[in-house]
Amino acid sequence: MKLKRLFFLVCLLCAALTAPAQKSSEFRGQIKFGAIKHNVGNVYRHYPLHRVVFQFRNVGKQPLKIYKVEPFCGCVTAKFTEKPVLPGQLGYITLTYNGGGKHDGYFSENIEVYSSSEKDPRIYLNISGTLVEYQPPADK
Fold it and tell me: Which of 11, 22, 59, 116 is the most buried (most CB within 10 A)?
């Protein structure tokens, strides 16, 4: 009786471990970014919103799915291609940096991307720059 129970538990555990892999096996593309870092230069305090678009290509032979894009800071919001990206096609991750309420100076924010990429299922993007006070041009 104990042997049957043990066998049942082992089968249940195996089924639970392989179920997620079976669910996502249709999305096994390969993600390739043109760049994973972007320095935006100066961001002015009076115009604190700055948008950066990261473009990627599915260089694999199967569709690619972006599951989640997770900024490490609340000062960054993300939008991304939610539909599967077919082989050879482009996808986008748009990040918006809001420096309002931050101190002047250098900033560097990391963003984690979760995808179905067979080779790189988790990639880190980075945006950086310098938050400065806006200085209007002097009158002549």
Answer: 116
HSE value, Cβ hemisphere, 13 Å, CA-based, for 101: 5
- Give the pair of three-digit tokens for residue 68: 């989640």
Cα–Cα–Cα angle for 104, 53, 65, rounded to 5 degrees: 130
What backbone phi and psi angles, to 5 degrees, belong to 127? -120, 140
What type of residue is 2?
K
Q: Taking 70 as the threshold, does the pLDDT of residue 4 lie above it? A: no
Structure pTM?
A: 0.76
- State the distance between the two ends of the chain, measured CA to CA, in whole angstroms: 95
Answer for the pair 94, 111: CB distance below 8 angstroms, yes or no: no
3-state secondary structure of 47: coil
pLDDT in tens, 36-77: 999 999 988 777 788 999 999 999 999 999 999 999 999 999
